[in-house]
Amino acid sequence: MQRRSIRFRLTIWYAVVLAAGLSLFSLLIWVSLRHRLMQEIDQDLEGRASRFERYFASESNEAAGDQLRDELQEFCQALPPSSYVELHGASGFTFVYPGTVRDNESNLRKLQRQFTFHQERFELEIAAPVAEAEHTLDLLRLLLWSTIPVVIAIACIGGAWLSGRALKPVNDIAAAALTISIENLAERLPVPPTGDELARLTEVLNTMFARLESAVRTLSQFVADASHELRTPLAVIRTTAELALRRVRPAESYRDSLQEVAAEAERMTRLVEELLILARHDSATTEMPLAAVDVRDVLKDVCDEIRTLAEMRQIHVKLFYCDSAAVISGNRQALHRLFLVLLDNALNFSRPGGEVIVKVESSESRIAVSVEDFGAGISESDLPHIFTRFYRVDQSRTGGGHGLGLSLAKSIARVHGASIDVQSTEAVGSRFQVNFSARDSGPIVAVAASSMPSAKI
Question: Reading across the β-sheet that carries 84-89, which strands appear in turn?
Answer without folding.
Answer: 94-98, 84-89, 120-129, 108-117
